[in-house]
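ok here's the first one, seq then struct tokens
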Amino acid sequence: MEFVVSNWRAWCSGISDQSDWQDWRRGEKQLGGNSQADVSFLPAMQRRRLSPLAKAVFHTAFPLLQQEDIPLLLCSVHGEAMRTYSLLQGVAAREDLSPTAFGLSVHNAIAGQFSIACKTRSPALALAGGDFPMQSGLIEAAGLLQEGEEELLLVFCEETLPEMYYPSAESSTYICATALRLSKHKSSDTDIKLSLTASECAGAESVFTEPDYQLLLIRSLIDREGRIPVSERWELQINAS
């Protein structure tokens, strides 16, 4: 399976523009801090409904849309984990649940908010990534492109889990979102070619032992080359000849 990345953006712990990511790759800038992604381009009413994770998604994906109506595929292992945990605490305390809070906690909430904010009519899909989210997202993207979509936005996003889950699940160290504008055909010399290829020795770690998987992808996108194991038998090749 082959794809072309015509553009990409990522946000993680305050690092968002390409120059900052280049500095990070060279070891000149470190991830850390509790900053939230800038979504000042949205109306105040919409901003207030966005969680820190949703803000990271909007910050990365919105500029790539370029006011075009193309499908969105949002892939996350846990989705709005902090919102869901807050609701569960309310249930445990026998409190009444807010319908709005519940609606904003479901797995496709961010995809729906994005579709509404951008006024798009194309499909906006949310995918639970499972053990190998990069593989899951890319296979789903391949299906959409094969069905006739010319382009789509593929977004990976994760946030730090509540501490009570730590004994049973590894947590992403940071809130992180990575957005790729994908198509089937190369149209520019700056495009990046992705190939999802079978490999008997890929041997990827599950996201539950490699929770910061997006940083592997970001590193290869910056370098414009690399091989990333995305499951036990598949790897992602970047600009492989």
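and now the second one, same deal
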Amino acid sequence: MFNVLLDLPKTFSVGIDGNFLSSENSPFQLKGIKLVEPGVHFIHLEDLNLNLRSGIWINGKDDHTIVIDIKDGISDLSVFVLNHMTREMIVRPSSDPEDVDYSMEVSKILDTMSENFPLMVNYSSLNTKHPHWESLTKYISFPRLLDVLQGNSWFTFPISTLDASKQENEYLIDKLSKTSIEKNPDRIIESLRKDDYQMRFSTIEFNKTARPNATASQVTQDSMDKSWFVETKLLPGLLLEFQLSFLLFMILNNASAASHWVNIIKIMLNCDSLVEIKENLFMEFFDCLSIQLKIIPEELVASSDSMVNLQALKASLTTFNETIESPKVRRSFNKVKDTLKLQFQFEDIDFLDDI
């Protein structure tokens, strides 16, 4: 088991995985989460005054304590790791010199944790409150997380509500580079290039999915059927990115993650030939999507004012429903249709008629 020690203002809430906790209406200030099972977990914080959120993925290991401290706002977290059995600092704050002696600091932290242990939430008491979490993170492993989020072998760097993806930063860099010299965009461009917290999702541009050196017929084929692009550019990390972008969208309310999640859905619904050769991929994909749709708050996806409007997927869903031939994939796809009908009142959509 491991522990997460927190030093947060009372106006901050904290959560782990799919559980949300708060000190705001509590007689005591929450000081952390104790006795957490080893493995990959998501720690997320919210500044209730600003309605901003931030989160880090952690690779928890037995006998360790992860300390999270707010330095200057929700996006500026100090995170370090110590072994509370050997009293050794494993990961030091990045701003500290290499030759710092941490023996006194570790002793203070362990004394603080001992005092605050009664004010730390027992993870086992939360474990049954989000039954879908294991399914929502089925394809998320820590080494693969580091392909998308920057970090070290213990935790990822914080991602906040306002952080952008690498693709969005590159788009802004391109636009700024074409700005006249008088507007002097160099400083902003350099800042975007050095953004430590950008999400490195795979780039999906629907007008750039043709294979290199394609013939005219291949260009036409690749514009209508995205199978080549998905198979060669998005695999094998597609399901991880699909689950990760969904969780960063739902928990952190991150717009870049929301956009990537929708783009993956749209492109997977336009892969006619790939369905025939990768049935398992599509079964797993639609199983993931059906669970996601069951638990996402309706206000995030169900109106024109939402960050995502599921109604915008109507055409792609209808086309896929009309062309799908694999009985196995159809069974998984039908779970999505059932959820859309029950959760989001999609009764007027033609493709639901054959449920």
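notes on #2: The mean pLDDT is 86. The radius of gyration is 23 Å.
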